[in-house]
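Fill-in record for p53 apoptosis effector related to PMP-22.
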Amino acid sequence: MVVCGLACWRCRWLLPLLLGLAIIMGIIALAGRGWLESESEPYVQQASLWESCTRGQGDLNWSCESLMDYGWGRAAAATYLVGFVILVICFALAVIAFSIEILRFNFVRGIGGLLFVVAAFQIIGLVIYPVKFTEEIPLMGDNMFSWAYGFGWASTVVVIGCAFFFCCLPNWEDEVLGNIKPTYYYSSPERAPYLN
């Protein structure tokens, strides 16, 4: 005998957990120094969301300049940071929403809408950065956008996925709350003659 139905109420913490994962990836992106790095040796260029560092081929010390001196640097950092702050707020709201016994589904849909706003802010920051960086900062050697920049995009992809789930979750309100009876399917009619 197999019980079919959406047992989401037992796994209701999956969406807040995914938002927590997006927050962790966002922290790595904000703090990481691997937004842009030299592709191969000698490693002469390295950049974060906040600063760009270069060094000579024989030099061991990095010479850094702040990207906050550029308007586009402030714009990229501000948009990504605003998206991150709203993401933290959405995480707190999701924990509150799934903690209460009677789930308010309009509240959940509002969290989904805010997550789309988060994704928009993060995408704007993640697009401004490489376009303006390559236009205005002199690059030395072969460079690539690296791991911290990738964490920024990974956080954004998780946020977009969670936004869709939060917006669509109210469509399955009865299944999530357990208000419908499960449907039982049997493998063969011979094993359950009492159903006829």
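KEY FINDING: The helical segments are 14-31, 71-99, 105-136, 147-168, 173-177.
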